[in-house]
Design brief:
Layout: H1 8-15, H2 21-44, H3 51-58, H4 61-93, H5 100-115, H6 119-146, H7 152-159, H8 168-176, H9 184-187, H10 199-224, H11 235-240, H12 253-284, E1 290-291, E2 294-295, H13 297-315, H14 318-356
Length: 357
């Protein structure tokens, strides 16, 4: 949710700002909060069990392997989109003279090493980065809301389009922010006891997502206006560059904002590719793939990740990335809600497994 504030999501929303983005945000908040609740309650019913383990116990071998392979590709693509987006962002705003391959490797190599860590260590890394970064993000939001340059008249004009039917592409972009819950497919192994997930947690998620989405959409409009807002490739970069920190070592908020989000992008890629590696490991048992006694299974997959990533970084431009990302988000609004049907069959299957035992 945090990582995509300056990535492709706002660009997609502003592209359809007069065609249903506002209503799409409202609908996504409702549907996304419901999805998070249902996913969390499902995995809370099976403490310590990952989705591959549940599928292995309840479905046929051909379905289990092909479905988990598909999931591995989806998670790899999600990390790839973040990697390419932030590579383009850095070469445009921070390091225009540096070769694009070098920038990509600078982000990718630490993320790949991080993805090889144990699941619980990744969660600890996530906690540390959030504890460090979240207050800075809140401070940037505070500076934006309290800035004299923020024109509330522009915000009111944008809000008047709430009566448009939700745009499909805008809805899918907003809906993507709620799909972090799907990382429970692997991370649920860490939660070996049932969690206390109640209406207060649901309310907190709903309020946090509302603040994140409305800030993502309305603040750049308040600074840049509605006219030609869809032409901004990175609206939040222009917005953060309008902010100043008086009496501080770094005056321009842009530099703090970019450095912070590079760290968040690294974390996002690390999580996505860790989950993807675990999916591949559950199918091919990568730890048993050895050469002269050395485990090389995960190394082979990582080399494939590097090769594919460098290929797309070289071949894609920003417009092609925008189209590719939009299509990817559109696919997910069908796939992840339909997973609820699979969860229903898994629950029935697990009951039969318990009875058989």
């Amino acid at each position: 949710m945090i990582a995509n504030i300056i990535a492709s999501v706002p660009a997609i929303l502003f592209h359809f700002h007069k065609e249903g983005s506002v209503s799409a945000i409202i609908l996504a908040i409702i549907v996304g909060t419901i999805l998070i609740t249902m996913y969390t309650r499902f995995f809370n019913s099976f403490p310590g069990m990952t989705l591959p383990e549940l599928l292995k116990n309840t479905t046929s071998k051909w379905f289990y392997k092909s479905f988990v392979f598909f999931l591995a590709i989806v998670w790899f693509v999600a990390g790839l989109i973040t990697l390419v987006t932030f590579t383009f962002l850095l070469i445009r705003f921070l390091t225009p003279e540096m070769p694009i391959i070098q920038i990509c490797l600078t982000i990718m190599i630490p993320a790949l090493f991080g993805s090889l860590m144990k699941t619980e260590r990744i969660l600890y890394t996530l906690e540390i980065l959030i504890l460090i970064g979240f207050p800075i993000i809140v401070f940037v939001f505070y500076k934006a809301y309290s800035s004299d340059k923020l024109e509330w008249a522009f915000v009111k004009d944008a809000a008047l389009y709430f009566n448009q039917l939700p745009n499909l592409h805008a809805f899918s972009a907003c809906f993507y922010l709620f799909l972090g819950v799907a990382n429970l497919f692997i991370f649920n192994r860490f939660f070996t006891e049932k969690q206390n997930f109640n209406w207060k947690n649901v309310l907190f998620i709903g309020l946090l997502s509302t603040l994140a989405l409305f800030t993502t959409y309305f603040i750049p409009i308040g600074f840049n206006g509605l006219d030609h807002i869809e032409e901004l490739v990175y609206p939040w970069i222009s917005t953060s560059d309008s902010l100043r920190m008086d009496f501080f070592l770094i005056e321009r908020v842009l530099f703090v904002f970019l450095i912070l989000y590079v760290g968040i992008a690294f974390l996002s890629i690390m999580i996505h590719w860790h989950v993807s590696l675990e999916f591949f490991n559950s199918i091919f048992n990568l730890e048993k793939v050895k050469f002269k006694g050395i485990a090389i299974g995960k190394l082979i997959v990582i080399l494939l990740y590097v090769g594919v990533s460098l290929f797309f970084v070289r071949k894609l431009n920003e417009y092609q990335l925008f189209l590719f990302t939009s299509l990817f988000y559109d696919m997910l609004i069908i796939f992840f809600p339909s997973m609820l049907l699979l969860f229903f069959f898994i629950k029935r299957g697990m009951k039969n497994v318990k009875k058989a035992k």
